[in-house]
UniProtKB/TrEMBL annotation:
InterPro entries in alphabetical order: Band7/mec-2_domain, Band_7, Band_7/SPFH_dom_sf, Band_7/stomatin-like_CS, Stomatin_HflK_fam
Pfam family, one: Band_7
Region annotated Disordered, chain positions: 296-376
Band domain location: 20-178
UniProt key word Transmembrane: yes
Coiled-coil regions listed: none
Taxonomic lineage from the root: Bacteria, Bacillati, Actinomycetota, Actinomycetes, Propionibacteriales
The protein, known as: Band 7 domain-containing protein
Length: 376
């Protein structure tokens, strides 16, 4: 039994001895070894052997980059406004021995140094500059911290201002100022938009007016040209029509009987007016027609001598058959006599019946007979 107890004690001593002798240091760590309370060596990562019960691993330092966030701290700006600023520090231990023996608590030291340096930097800026100069504050603060923590074996890689909170009253004023500034910019943009719209509208109206005026001018020119060509064609047509009619008259060789017949044809149309209530045909109608025919025969365009027209008008490929002059004269005389009798009967129906019965002859009276017009 005593042997077993001795073996157990020996085994426990061996285990403790091994535990004191063999040390395992993790990656990115450093072990500070002290011998009788004095610094002996620094253990790197891996399996290390030390003297048991003499050497002791007092500290294990993390060599990785560390991130520490500090709570908000009040800072007074140059214009005497208190703002709360919270910071974030990124640092790394480069010398484990210095970080162990040069400073008791390097994290707390970095925090206090950050606060004092931040008050010093922000104290020379006003509120607006503080809010808009974060990069400048970060750069200056990092330079101060890196210089101060170098002897502690610490390197400050980056400093960030997490937030800058002004007082509530200042926040309200800033919001009002920002709102007013945005309203001003909105009004300016609206005015610029309206101006651009008015300019574009005016330019559009100008172009429209120019195009309308050009269209009216071209339309007027085209209408004038069309009117001119229409008048020219109309005048040419009237001239050809007059020449054609004049040529037909000369080709027909009119005489006084034909003119008298045309006059008799126009007499009913003269009597068609509303004001012509009574229309009397005189008994001397034959003499009047004879005088009319003799007068019109002397007019220009109906000469007594018909040698033929000097200007011929193309009447077509075939010429119409014209009856002989004697037959035309006879037919015209017969038509004139018939028209005279019809006119006398229409003017005096009773007298016409007495003339037919043979009892209408009176001494010195007019029988209604009209001598035929003289032949040309």
């Amino acid at each position: 039994m005593a042997v077993l107890i001795a073996l157990a004690i020996l085994l426990a001593f061996v285990v403790v001895l091994l535990a004191k002798t063999v040390q395992i240091v993790p990656q990115a760590r450093a072990g500070i070894v002290e011998r009788f309370g004095k610094y002996q060596q620094t253990l790197d990562a891996g399996l290390k052997i030390i003297v048991p019960f003499i050497d002791n691993v007092r500290y294990r330092i993390d060599l990785r980059e560390q991130v520490v966030s500090f709570p908000p701290q009040p800072v007074i700006t140059e214009d005497n406004l208190v703002v709360s600023i919270d910071t974030v520090i990124y640092f790394q231990v480069t010398d484990p021995v210095a970080a162990t023996y040069e400073i008791a608590n390097y994290i707390q030291a970095v925090e206090q140094l950050t606060m004092t340096s931040l008050r010093n930097i922000v104290g020379g800026m006003d509120l607006e500059e503080t809010l808009t100069s974060r990069d400048e504050i970060n750069t200056r603060l990092r330079g101060v911290l890196d210089e101060a923590t170098g002897k502690w074996g610490i390197r400050v890689n980056r400093v960030e201002l997490k937030g800058i909170d002004p007082p509530p009253s200042i926040k309200d004023s800033m919001e009002k100022q920002m709102r007013a500034d945005r309203d001003k910019r909105a009004a300016i943009l609206t005015a610029e938009g309206q101006r651009q719209s008015a300019i574009l509208s005016a330019e559009g109206m100008k172009q429209s007016a120019i195009l309308t005026a050009e269209g009216d001018r071209e339309s007027a020119i085209l209408r004038a040209q069309a009117d001119r060509e229409s008048q020219i064609l109309k005048a040419q047509g009237e001239g050809q029509a007059i020449q054609t009619v004049f040529q037909a008259i000369h080709d027909g060789q009119p005489d006084q009987s034909l003119l008298a017949y045309q006059y008799l044809q126009m007499m009913p149309k003269i009597a068609e007016g509303d004001a012509n209530k009574v229309w009397i045909v005189p008994s001397e109608i034959g003499r009047a027609l004879e005088g009319l025919g003799s007068t019109m025969s002397e007019m220009s365009g109906i000469p007594k001598d018909l040698p033929g027209p000097r200007t011929r008008v193309d009447m077509g490929s075939t010429s119409p058959e014209v009856p002989s002059v004697d037959a035309s004269k006879k037919a015209a005389n017969d038509a004139v006599q018939a028209a005279i009798r019809e006119a006398e009967e229409a003017a005096n129906p009773g007298r016409a019946r007495k003339a037919q019965s043979g009892t209408g002859d009176e001494p010195g009276g007019d029988t209604g007979a009209v001598p035929p017009p003289s032949q040309p």
